[in-house]
Write a structure and sequence with these properties.
The termini are far apart. This protein folds into two domains: about 5-140, Response regulator (Rossmann fold, 3-Layer(aba) Sandwich); about 150-205, Orthogonal Bundle (Arc Repressor Mutant, subunit A). The chain contains ten helices and seven strands. The strands form two sheets. The chain has a five-stranded parallel beta sheet with strand order 2-1-3-6-7, sandwiched between helices. A two-stranded antiparallel ribbon has the order 4-5. The radius of gyration is 19 Å and the shape is globular. By secondary structure, the protein is α/β, with parallel strands linked by helices. It has helices at about 15-25, 40-45, 65-75, 90-100, 110-125, 130-140, 150-160, 165-175, 180-190, 195-205, and strands at about 5-10, 30-35, 50-55, 60, 60-65, 80-85, 100-105.
Length: about 210
């Protein structure tokens, strides 16, 4: 197996340090880079030659899907494995649609991450049984699974709802008319295919939006 440059992307320093200490002993590792923010990620991608990215989906101020799009645009040959503690079906489908090469759950531990890396390098992709089941269960509605990536105003609306704000309070917070705030809320519910505000918040927590 050829040696590769790996980029670890996670806002938790302890997790990055732990993963680095384990990976550095592998004979296929050439160099390990780290990023804890979107800006650090962009700097490394722009300046360094990266072969594989271990990408946490939750980073402050951004969404892992946005960073995945950035990698695809800048260096489409780079392999990306999503490493996440989230299990939202919508998020998994969104990652698969975006072209991620593998998905690993943090709780599955280092052996699973190592297996994913080696399999992706050898066979181009790695999806554990849990992900295969999601693909099978959603095959017929693949194109209709609601998106996870929201616009900035939609994210602001979601955060306001999560804080228990009323329509009037949301309108003041977001500097808009009450009727506009209510329209935004209804549109967001329709966009994500849920039935009410409680389901909207459940969707957001399940997929790491909040």
């Amino acid at each position: 197996m050829k040696t590769i440059n790996v980029l670890l992307v996670d806002d938790e320093v302890l997790l990055r340090e732990g993963l680095r200490s384990l990976l550095v002993g592998e004979d296929f590792i050439k160099k390990i880079y780290e990023a804890g923010t979107a800006n650090e990620f962009k700097t490394v991608i722009e300046k360094q030659s990266i072969d594989l990215v271990l990408l946490d989906i939750r980073l402050p101020g951004t969404n892992g899907l946005e960073l995945l799009d950035l990698v695809k645009a800048k260096s489409p040959e780079v392999k990306v494995i999503a490493v996440t503690g989230l299990e939202g079906v919508e998020l998994m489908v969104s990652l698969l649609k975006a072209g991620v090469h593998g998905i690993v759950f943090k709780l599955d531990g280092y052996r699973e991450i190592l297996k994913a890396i080696k399999t992706v390098l050898r066979e181009d992709n790695y999806f554990p049984e849990k992900i295969i089941r999601i693909i099978q269960a959603n095959a017929k509605r693949w194109d209709h699974v609601p998106p996870v990536l929201l616009t900035a105003p939609e994210n602001d609306m979601m955060k306001a709802l999560a804080h228990g704000m009323t329509t009037k309070e949301i309108a003041l917070e977001l500097k808009m008319a009450e009727t506009t705030a209510e329209t935004y809320r209804i549109r967001l519910i329709k966009k994500l295919g849920v039935s009410n505000t409680a389901a909207l918040l459940a969707y957001a927590y399940r997929n790491g939006i909040l």
